[in-house]
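QA checklist item 7 of 12: single-chain prediction sanity check.
[x] sequence parsed
[x] length recorded as 139
[x] structure emitted
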Amino acid sequence: MLNEHDLLGALDHPAYHQQIKLRWYNGRINVFQAVTPTDAAKVLRRLKPTWTKDEHASLAQQHADAADQHERAWSQLVDQAAIETFGRPYHITDYRISGIACDEFSEPMKQALRFAAHARTYHRQLSGAHACASGQRRR
C-alpha cells in the first residue's frame, strides 16, 4: 500500500531513481532512462511490485496534472520574460533555444524556464510509465 508521500507524485521518490538491469539495455537504468513508457513501466513494476494498477493509475493522473501545471507555468514565465526583455508578450517567432526560448532573457528567468520545462518532461515521462503499468493506454 502506498503512503501519503508516495501519492504526492514527487519526482524524488526513490523508485524513480533506483537502477535495474532490463533486457536490451547495455547497463542498469532507472525509469527516466528507459527509452519507452513500456520499458519504464517494467522498471516500476519490478521495483514496486506491491503497487496496484489503481495506484499506478492514480500516480499517472497526478503526474499528468503536475506536467500540465508546469507547462502553464512555463507559458506564464515566457510571457513575463518577453515583456521584461522586449516590452511585449512572447511570440512564437522569438523561439530559438529549447527550454529557455530565447537567450536574451535574464539568467533568473532562464533558470525558471529550464526548471518548468524539465519538470514538465519528467512528470510527463512518469505519467506515461504509470499509465502503462496500470494497463491504461499511454496518454
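[x] summary fact logged: Residues 1-8 have pLDDT under 50 and may be disordered.
[ ] second reviewer sign-off
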